[in-house]
Amino acid sequence: METKKTEFGLVTISRPYFSRLSLSRVKSITLVKEENTNYGWGVSRELPENLTITPELINVFAKEASELI
Predict the structure, then answer these.
(1) Quick one: which of 66, 15, 16 has its CA closest to 42?
(2) 33-64 pLDDT, tens digit each
(3) How far apart are CA 19 and CA 9, in angstroms?
(4) Would you say which domain of life the source belongs to (predicted)?
């Protein structure tokens, strides 16, 4: 698992796994805001395993996810 700090909180990127929902291998990215780190809950999204997760993608996801929390 990889963790990136953004202005919206911490984004973790999982190792690839098989998703029953999408019936394919995916990576999960999860945003956890600073105030929620003790509880460990946040907003997640599954992405295709072969998608390159760039800093720009992480920032866009973190911004959108922070609006949901």
Answers:
(1) 66
(2) 988 888 878 999 999 999 999 999 999 999 99
(3) 25
(4) Bacteria
Q: Could you tell me the residue ranges of all domains in the chain?
A: 2-66
- Specify the pTM: 0.86
* Distance spanning both ends of the chain, measured CA to CA: 22
Q: How many helices (H) and strands (E) does the chain have?
A: 1, 5
CA 67 to chain centre: 14
Please check whether residue 1 is in contact with residue 14, taking contact to mean a CB–CB distance below 8 angstroms.
yes
Which residues lie across from 46 on neighbouring strands? Answer: 28
CA dist 8 and 11 (Å) reads 9
Query: Helix, strand, or coil here: 33?
Result: coil
- Find the largest Cα–Cα distance for the chain: 33
